[in-house]
């Protein structure tokens, strides 16, 4: 007879990581909001494209997507720092 899911040690490790990544997600969404405001202000007040800020915003978007995928059991791979930080091309369209 097989053990139920809660008796599996791997399940409890995943629950712990899910709680940690839930906190990280809240911080990441706050950082995303700050970057979004900064990019908007730079675009409003300048003719120049904020390339570096935009690439950070795209990388943060990819990171948040990885966290959502992990939290919703869409992926078993843990996001950063267990994987490299998401890389996005500067030329890539949003």
Model description:
This protein is mainly alpha-helical and 94 residues long. It has helices at 9-45, 51-71. The chain is elongated.
Q: What series of H and E elements makes up the topology?
A: HH
Overall pLDDT score: 87
Question: Segments where pLDDT lies below 50 for 5+ residues?
Answer: none
Specify the structural class. Answer: mainly alpha
The 3D shape can be described as elongated
Helical fraction: 55-70%
Strand content: under 5%
Largest sheet: none
- DSSP helix count? 2
CA-based gyration radius: 17 Å
- Through-space gap between termini: 50 Å
What is the total tally of β strands? 0
Short structural summary:
This protein has helices spanning 9-45, 51-71. It is mainly alpha-helical.
Topology:
Layout: H1 9-45, H2 51-71
Helix pairs in contact: 1-2
Structural descriptors:
94 residues, mainly alpha, 2 helices, elongated
